[in-house]
C-alpha cells in the first residue's frame, strides 16, 4: 500500500519524523493512546483497532466493531484514563467502552449538540 496510510511519529521540538508502515487501517477518524497502546477508529470497516509501534511498522493487536455499526461510521475517539470514548454516528451521545470494546455506558448530549472531534485533557 502507499505511504499515505503510514503512521507518522513527529518530534515537534526538532521537526524530525519516523514513518511506521500500515497496510490495514484505511480511513482513520480518531486516534488515541492509553499509555501502552494506540487505538484508531477506522471509518471504512467500522472497527476500532488496537496497535503498537513495532520496528518500522504498526502491529495490529486486536480490533472490535464500533457500537451501532449498522448506523454507519463515526468520528472522534479519546481515552479518559479509564475508558475509550467514541462519539455516536448522529453526534447525540458518547459511548464509553472498555479497551477491549465492551460498551459500559454512554453520555447523552443535549438536543442540537454538534460533537465531532474530541480530546481528553485530564480534567474531570
Spatial gap, N to C terminus: 41 Å
Task: Write down the CATH topology.
Answer: Neuraminidase
Q: Based on DSSP secondary structure assignment, what is the total number of beta strands?
A: 10
Count of helical segments?
A: 0
Descriptive overview:
With 124 residues, this protein is mostly beta strands. The protein is 0% helix and 45% strand. It has no helices and 10 strands. It has strands at residues 7-11, 16-20, 28-33, 38-42, 47-54, 57-65, 77-79, 84-87, 93-97, 103-108. The strands form 3 sheets. The chain has a 4-stranded antiparallel β-sheet, with no helix packed on it. A hairpin with a 5-residue loop joins β8 and β9. The model has no long low-confidence stretch (mean pLDDT 88).
Give the gist of this structure.
The protein is mostly beta strands. It has no helices and 10 strands. The chain has a single domain, classed as 6 Propeller (Neuraminidase), CATH 2.120.10.
Name its key features.
124 residues, mainly beta, Neuraminidase, 4-stranded antiparallel beta sheet, 10 strands, globular
Amino acid at each position: 500500500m502507499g505511504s499515505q496510510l503510514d503512521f507518522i511519529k513527529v518530534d515537534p521540538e526538532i521537526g524530525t519524523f519516523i514513518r511506521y508502515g500500515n497496510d490495514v487501517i484505511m480511513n482513520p477518524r480518531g486516534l488515541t493512546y492509553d499509555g501502552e497502546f494506540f487505538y484508531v477508529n477506522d471509518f471504512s470497516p467500522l472497527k476500532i483497532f488496537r496497535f503498537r509501534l513495532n520496528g518500522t511498522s504498526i502491529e495490529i493487536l486486536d480490533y472490535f466493531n464500533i457500537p451501532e455499526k449498522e448506523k454507519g461510521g463515526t468520528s472522534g475517539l479519546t481515552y479518559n484514563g479509564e475508558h475509550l470514548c467514541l462519539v455516536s454516528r448522529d453526534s447525540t451521545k458518547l459511548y464509553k467502552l472498555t479497551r477491549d470494546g465492551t460498551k459500559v455506558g454512554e453520555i447523552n448530549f443535549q438536543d442540537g449538540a454538534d460533537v465531532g472531534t474530541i480530546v481528553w485533557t485530564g480534567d474531570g
